[in-house]
Amino acid sequence: MNFKQNLTMFFGISFMLIFALSGMLILREIRDVLLIQSFGSNSFVAILRLIQIPVTILLGIGAFFLTRNGKIKRAFHLFFPINILFSLLMLALFYFKGISLHPSSASTATIFNKIVASTFYFWVGFSNVFTIVLIWGFANQHYTFKRASYQYPLILLIASLSMGIYIKYLMGFIFEKKLYYLIFLTSAIIYAIVYIIYFLLREVHLRKKDVLKKPSLKYLIALIAIVFFLSLAKQFPQLPFKYLLKQKAPQAKDYLMIMGSFSFKQAIYGVFTLLLGVLLGLWMYIKGSKLLAKIGGFLIIVITLLGLYVFKMPAKEATIDIKSAYSLMPYGMFMSFVALFLYLIKELCYFRFPLKNRFSAKILVDLIFVSIAMPLSTYMSTVVIVMKGSILASNNIYMGMFFISMLICFIALYWINKEQKNNLIE
Q: In the chain, what are the domains?
């Protein structure tokens, strides 16, 4: 293996993720603000969010057929130029047509503004997800399982830390100066940089051989189950905890200050988890893919225990205070970061697919099924709260859904382990 090529790919993927995650966050922030400011009815905004699901699924199906047989280059050459042009169009409309993020009244927003806001909402909802899918899919086309096992956590560690610093100063400057149109210019530049990095990396070849035997249908179903139910379950432990914090800090300013004070701890837990991920990856590098499902199963047990601990907080509602709530916050954070590494475990599962099927499988699992799971968890939460009358009264139901979801993930990893016991990934 050429060390220089490996280093080039490592830092190339890292920088692609740094810019892509930064672009995802800034576009998500302005998307939500623009949508809320353009529509006076919260119920209509909820309808648009519901429509987002079939829109993303349809675009995902189109991407699936576009990139069949491993033709991931088609997606890069079509997606990024369109995204750059779309951002520049939004810049022109925002700057020259006078579209405002802060109109005096939502009812004064024109029909044109509402159409622009809706179109932008749908496109950002798809492009934010698809950009990340493309980058990891590209990495999976070039990396081997063994090198990915310890380098992927390092890549994510570099990208996460750098992106946090980047967003803090970039967003602070834009919002402090109220230069909102710069967000669209910035997003166009970000997509252009990611596209340029792709061009520089596309001829780097790290692989020597490919998996020839296709995995069974059961393997694909197991991978779908893990991603779907992880996406579904991760919200449930947060609901009673955040509700509890809001009860103890009813003023929005106090709540935001409390949540903001956890940023440093959040970074520490993130570094700790991803460094642990590197150590586990090195272990897999030495022992091979037969450890993959076993490590994933251990992580699911850890997440489940931490999640059930977090669910116990509402039982202490009568006596808990801000200081106690503050001390419990790290458990929720640590759980989310362990889940983050479990997603990296999922990424390594894609190496079981032949190159020509690998990216198609990723679109199916990470784009289409995640697009269903994420809003589904929100609507399930809403229905349960309406039925039970409050979040705390719904706590046992959330705990049950969380536990069942994690159990399904554990069983799915058992299925995956049966196909990996002979190191079929290598």
A: 3-201 (1.20.1250), 217-420 (1.20.1250.20)
The alpha carbon torsion through 176, 260, 301, 154 (nearest 10 deg) reads: 50
Whether 291 contacts 284, CB under 8 Å: yes
| Sign of the four-CA dihedral 357, 361, 67, 133 | negative
Task: Please list, in sequence order, all residues whose beta carbon lies within 8 angstroms of the beta carbon of residue 273, skipping any fewer than 6 positions away.
Answer: 334, 337, 338, 340, 341
Burial code of 44-78, b = ≥16 C-beta within 10 A, e = fewer?
A: ebeebbeebbebbbebbeebbeebeebebeebbee
pTM (predicted TM-score) = 0.83
pLDDT in tens, 205-221: 666 666 667 888 899 99
CA distance 263 to 242: 16
DSSP letter for 215, please. P
3-state secondary structure of 54: helix
Q: Which contacts (CB < 8 Å, 24+ apart) does range 373-376 have? A: 373/227, 373/228, 373/229, 373/231, 373/232, 374/231, 375/49, 375/50, 375/52, 375/53, 376/232
pLDDT in tens, 294-313: 888 888 888 888 777 777 76
Amino acid identity of 215?
P
Calpha distance 260→262 (Å, rounded): 5
Residues 6 or more apart whose Cβ sits within 8 Å of residue 30:
101, 180, 183
